[in-house]
Design a protein that fits this description.
Chain B: Axonemal protein which is implicated in axonemal and/or peri-axonemal structure assembly and regulates flagellum assembly and beating and therefore sperm motility. Chain B: Keywords: Cytoplasm, Repeat, TPR repeat. Chain B: Its main location: cytoplasm. The complex is a heterodimer of chains A (about 375) and B (about 425). Chain A has about 375 residues and is mainly α. Chain A has helices spanning about 50-75, 80-105, 110-130, 135-150, 150-170, 175-190, 195-210, 215-235, 235-265, 280-295, 305-320, 325-340, 345-360; strands at about 10-15, 35-40, 45. Among the domains of chain A are: about 10-75, no CATH class; about 235-260 and about 280-360, Serine Threonine Protein Phosphatase 5, Tetratricopeptide repeat (Alpha Horseshoe), CATH 1.25.40. In chain A, helix 2 runs parallel beside helix 10 and helix 8 (about 215-235) runs antiparallel to helix 9 (about 235-265). Chain B is an all-alpha fold and about 425 residues long. Chain B has a domain at about 335-395. Chain B has helices at about 1-20, 25-30, 40-45, 50-60, 65-85, 90, 100-120, 120-135, 140-155, 160-180, 180-200, 210-230, 235-250, 255-270, 275-290, 295-310, 315-330, 335-350, 355-370, 375-390, 395-400, 405-415. Classes of the chains: A mainly alpha (about 375), B mainly alpha (about 425).
């Protein structure tokens, strides 16, 4: 995403009090304080200052500006057909906000995810009413956004709300419970309550298995997170065992991804980026990097394991088109695998390296 | 009791839930003594399903491989139940994920095994898995036994340890009981080889390899019997001899006797009655010293059959009567019915219908007591047939001649004979 220039980030004008019915105060979209300016595009969102307007524009408003117009303009109309239409719009809005917030979160932009998560919660409350179970995903989303920013008190409150709602409705699906436990686990990890964090991550993995299966990427992510807690406790053996499990699963996954990628490359279709959503890729790269660092720091290095992780990283970068990094990691992997005679990974790594080199020397015919 | 506990839990849960929102209020309510405060773990134990509780426990302790294994086992349990025909015994039991005790045992030992594996002590891993295999004795849980024994015996590291060898013996035993003799033989032979190499002792201080000998003896004999039924006499004889040899080596008297008996049966069906009789006599001695009446009866019957085939009817009858007495004295009604039936047949063959009827009647009565319907029917028919034959024997000439006078004689006889007891 290219950085937003100040000039292109929406236009704000001062609120003209006479243009609105009297007695209805306008509040800031982000902080709920009294508002003085409004978005000149939609004219239904208000802000206390230009900073908040700017933040909202970058976070979410740019995407939903025009969507908000019918929703907010027809708020007070009681015609059933209009209401129904509006409800559909709100549902759509929630979906967009959730997706935007999630992708920003996984890219590590907590600050930018905040407005989207806020909008999601507000719209959810508007649609379903306060204290309903439908709010749980929105609570979790907002809590995650705040977690990245270190607002732990807010996180605690939001997660308690979510936990209470789930506790009241135990028949709720496994996926929502999984999300809640993951957020709780992350929260307790940050606060340093590692035992409780373990409890929640364990539940997270259990529900992920129930919902998505033992080999799913959600479960694998859970393994990675719980390994981090064990690492903080200094239980290196467990961490090692968990990381090798994670690395093996991803190796399987990435190998098949590489295969399909090569097939497509043969038929000269340029689809290198669309294979993996950017956010997912960033997340995966981050995890693999952490695992590699952990292994390289160990006093007794497991070369086998290092080769596996480095090969993973090389494949990941190759698929996403960064040949330089792919080459780097592939040579790391090769070095590691050469230390063990007849290692099963040596051959595929060499193949990958050759491919990378041939693509680098060619004047890049397939890549625009 | 349960109600009190659950009420306690509910109140505690309520406190826990509201605590975060109304911290001041909980503080005031907190007059309960510390011992009654449930930990997060205790709450999970009562609130969640046993499956979730166990899985979470394992993951929390970092045993993720055990978790995956248990999770896969539970899945396959549900699948097997879904594919089971309705009213099958499998469905009478609750699914594995609801049996807390079994889950707890699996959790405990798998976790220990995983810990040992991390530390690299392969023998301990095998021991834990062997223990789990032995734990599941219920016929419905055989598949779990198979899983754990296999996971123990087929390991790359530690697959040649004592525990793994024992697991392989158990596997041979299970396969034999399931009727898969070829697989059983394969497992037992491999286990015996490992046991010979290892030179271990069993808990009673005997060499472990003897177990393999006993097991193999039985398997060879059973295989021999199967070949016998398929009329492949050469292979059968070879296997049966092998079985006896193994059984002698194994040193277990009853297995030895059984193998001898099977070998004798093999010889008998190939027509070598002299050798068969010798073996059967050894059986009689062995069973006699074991005080195994069933075995004795079985051996006597086999001897009698050989005698009968040789034409030595006198001795044959003598042997059978001895065994019938044995049955009567130790109240083996079913065997008695069988032996008496054989005796009845032999007597009717040598043309002694009265004696024959007597034994058929005894057989019928014994079969009734033992509720052996098939034997009962057989005895009934034989008895009727023999009685009828002995009855019409004196008038057979009249029946054969087609004249009015003979018919008249027959009618006369019919009207005057009344209801005599012919037997």
């Amino acid at each position: 995403m290219e950085p937003d220039e100040p000039g292109t980030s929406g236009v704000a004008t001062k609120i003209m009090p006479l243009a609105f019915p009297k007695g209805k105060e306008k509040y800031c979209e982000l902080c709920q304080r009294e508002a003085y300016i409004q978005c000149s595009e939609c004219q239904v969102t208000f802000y206390c200052n230009a900073d908040h307007q700017q933040a909202d524009w970058v976070g979410i408003h740019e995407r939903i500006c025009q969507m908000l117009v019918p929703i907010r303009a027809m708020k007070d109309i009681y015609d059933p057909s209009v209401r129904k239409k509006n409800q559909l719009r709100k549902r759509h809005l929630i979906k967009i906000c959730t997706l935007v917030a999630q992708s920003k979160l996984s890219e590590g932009k907590g600050e930018e995810a905040l407005p989207a998560a806020h909008c999601c919660l507000q719209t959810s409350i508007d649609l379903y009413g306060p204290n309903t179970i439908q709010l749980v995903p929105a609570y979790i989303l907002l809590a995650e956004a705040n977690m990245g920013l270190g607002n732990l008190a807010v996180v605690a409150e939001l997660l308690s709300q979510a936990e209470w709602a789930v506790l009241k409705n135990p028949e709720l699906g496994a996926s929502i419970q999984q999300q809640l436990h993951r957020s709780l686990g992350q929260f307790y990890t940050t606060t340093g309550n590692l035992e409780t964090a373990l409890f929640h991550f364990a539940n997270d993995i259990y529900f992920a298995c129930e919902e998505y299966g033992l080999d799913s990427s959600a479960t694998t992510k859970g393994y990675f997170l719980i390994a981090d807690v064990f690492a903080r406790q200094g239980k290196t053996l467990i961490v090692h065992s968990l990381y090798s499990e994670v690395a093996e699963r991803w190796h399987k996954h990435l190998s098949s991804l590489l295969e399909t990628h090569q097939k497509h490359a043969d038929s000269s279709v340029d689809s290198s980026v669309s294979f993996y959503e950017k956010s997912q890729r960033v997340e995966m790269e981050e995890m693999l990097r952490v695992m590699l660092e952990f292994e390289q720091k160990q006093s007794r290095r497991d070369v086998n394991h290092i080769a596996l992780i480095a090969h993973n990283l090389a494949m990941l970068w190759f698929v996403s088109g960064d040949l330089h990094k792919a080459q780097d990691f592939a040579s790391t992997a090769l070095q590691a695998s050469m230390q063990i005679p007849k290692h099963k990974l040596t051959e595929p790594i060499q193949e990958l390296l050759q491919q990378v080199e041939s693509l680098q020397t060619e004047p890049q015919p397939g890549f625009a | 009791m349960i109600r009190i506990v659950s009420a306690k839990i509910l109140t505690r849960l309520y406190y826990l839930c509201t605590s975060r929102m109304k911290q001041v209020e909980t503080f005031r309510n907190r007059k309960v003594s510390d011992s009654s405060i449930l930990s997060r773990k205790e709450i999970a134990m009562f609130r969640n399903t046993p499956k979730q509780y166990m899985c979470v426990e394992m993951l929390q302790d970092g045993y993720h491989r055990s978790f995956s294994e248990l999770f896969i086992l539970l899945r396959s349990d549900l699948e097997q139940r879904a594919n089971a025909p309705p009213k099958s015994p499998r469905l009478q039991e609750p699914p594995l994920e609801e049996q807390r005790e079994k889950l707890e045992t699996i959790r405990l030992h798998l976790s220990r095994a995983e810990k040992a594996e991390r530390d690299g002590s392969w023998t301990a891993v095998c021991e834990e898995r062997l223990h789990l295999g032995r734990y599941f004795t219920d016929p419905m849980d055989i598949w779990l036994s198979f899983h754990f024994y296999h996971s123990c015996a087929d390991r790359v590291f530690g697959g040649r340890s004592k525990a793994a060898t024992e697991a392989r013996f158990h596997l041979a035993e299970l396969y034999r009981q399931q009727g898969d003799l070829v697989e059983a033989r394969d497992q037992a032979e491999r286990a015996l080889k490992q046991a010979e190499d290892g030179g271990w002792l069993d808990p009673e201080g005997r060499p472990l390899r003897l177990w393999g000998c006993r097991e193999l003896g039985e398997i060879y004999s059973l295989l021999g019997e199967a070949y016998l039924a398929a009329k492949q006499y050469d292979t059968a004889t070879m296997l049966l001899q092998l079985g006896s040899k193994m059984a002698i080596e194994g040193g277990d008297q009853s297995v030895k006797a059984e193998s001898f008996f099977r070998e004798g049966m093999g010889l008998q069906s190939s027509g070598d009655h002299q050798a068969a009789k010798e073996l059967f006599n050894t059986c009689v001695e062995l069973f006699g010293s074991l005080q195994d009446v069933k075995g004795l009866v079985k051996s006597y019957k086999a001897i009698a059959k050989s005698l009968q085939s040789e034409g030595n009817i006198e001795e044959c009858i003598e042997t059978l009567e001895k065994s019938a007495d044995l049955c009567q004295s130790s109240d083996l009604q079913e065997r008695l019915a069988d032996i008496s039936l054989t005796l009845g047949c032999i007597y009717s063959d040598v043309n002694r219908p009265l004696k024959s009827c007597e034994y058929f009647l005894q057989s019928y009565k014994a079969a009734c007591t033992a509720r052996e319907v098939l034997l009962q029917h057989k005895a009934q028919v034989k008895l009727g047939y023999t009685c009828a034959h002995s009855l019409i024997k004196t008038h057979i000439s009249e029946m054969k001649t087609p004249s009015l006078s003979s018919v008249n004689q027959l009618v006369d006889w019919k009207e005057t004979r009344g209801h005599q007891n012919f037997c």
